[in-house]
């Protein structure tokens, strides 16, 4: 009887180790969720939008859209960093809303997203964001003091790192539904696994916003079931920034994608700078 119990326990241990090993090997497929296929031309989504090509430091070519301001210009440009799913076409309503308020907007896709080559990771997304920023500053002549960074969920970590590692490169940030760090999110999804020990990509948002030291506004949904509002508030506390809470809003609700709270937060920060 004892031998049988030992055998079963051994098999369960092997199965658990195989399962953990599989998750470790394919963890990025669980973190990054790019859609299939390329993105249509910019003008098919937004009449005045322009297709743009970005070149990363490691030689990849990425697709992007530049959406010029309409009406009375605020002379501020917004660089938008997406979350972990979808592509720039899904952010067209956001770009349209910001453009209508007098802001230039750059939407771009990370490597592996939107028909771009390459495979995403924390380090590689940092290169992609830097390429987008370089395009605005070097090719379009946007002064860093007139550049705002808007990060959506995972994108909050991307823009926070961009600001932290390049002091003076941006005037401020709006972070929509940011998390404390990626392991804190993974532990909620897989509470039975040693997520913090297994994850290769960390995205330490609170640490990054504290180092960035730029004016920051956090927008959160009070009914967010993906990123707890408490985590987003912790990011705001670390940044010494303001919080805009949207009652009843869940993580992927349109009101958090391009609603008045998000647009108003960006416009408000643009007017401050």
Automatic annotation (TrEMBL):
The chain crosses the membrane at residues 7-26. SUPFAM superfamilies: alpha/beta-Hydrolases (SSF53474). It holds the Pfam family Hydrolase_4. The keyword Transmembrane applies. GO terms for molecular function: hydrolase activity. Residues 77-184 form the Serine aminopeptidase S33 domain. Keywords: Hydrolase, Membrane, Transmembrane, Transmembrane helix. PANTHER family: ALPHA/BETA HYDROLASE DOMAIN-CONTAINING PROTEIN (PTHR12277), XAA-PRO DIPEPTIDYL-PEPTIDASE-RELATED (PTHR12277:SF79). This is Alpha/beta fold hydrolase. The lineage of its organism: Bacteria, Bacillati, Actinomycetota, Actinomycetes, Pseudonocardiales.
């Amino acid at each position: 009887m004892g031998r049988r119990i030992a055998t079963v326990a051994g098999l369960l241990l092997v199965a658990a180790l195989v399962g953990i090993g599989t998750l470790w090997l394919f963890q990025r497929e669980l973190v990054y969720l790019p859609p299939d296929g390329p993105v249509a031309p910019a003008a098919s989504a937004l009449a005045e939008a322009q297709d743009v090509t970005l070149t990363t430091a490691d030689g990849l070519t990425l697709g992007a859209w530049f959406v010029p301001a309409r009406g009375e210009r605020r002379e501020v440009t917004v660089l938008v960093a997406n979350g972990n799913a979808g592509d720039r076409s899904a952010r067209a309503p956001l770009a349209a809303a910001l453009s209508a308020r007098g802001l230039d907007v750059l939407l771009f896709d990370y490597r592996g997203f939107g028909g771009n080559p390459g495979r995403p990771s924390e380090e590689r997304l940092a290169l992609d964001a830097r390429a987008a920023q370089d395009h605005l500053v070097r090719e379009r002549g946007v002064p860093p003091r007139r550049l705002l960074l808007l990060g959506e969920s995972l994108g909050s970590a991307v823009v926070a790192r961009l600001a932290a590692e390049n002091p003076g490169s941006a005037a401020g940030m709006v972070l929509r539904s940011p998390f404390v760090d990626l392991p804190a999110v993974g532990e909620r999804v897989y509470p039975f696994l040693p997520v913090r020990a297994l994850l290769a990509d960390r995205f330490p948002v609170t640490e990054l916003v504290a180092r960035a030291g730029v004016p920051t506004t956090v927008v959160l949904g009070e009914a967010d079931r993906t990123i707890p509002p408490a985590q987003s508030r912790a990011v705001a506390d670390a940044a010494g920034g303001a919080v805009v809470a949207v009652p009843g809003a869940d993580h992927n609700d349109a009101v958090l994608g391009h609603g008045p709270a998000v647009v108003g937060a960006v416009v408000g920060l643009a007017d401050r700078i």
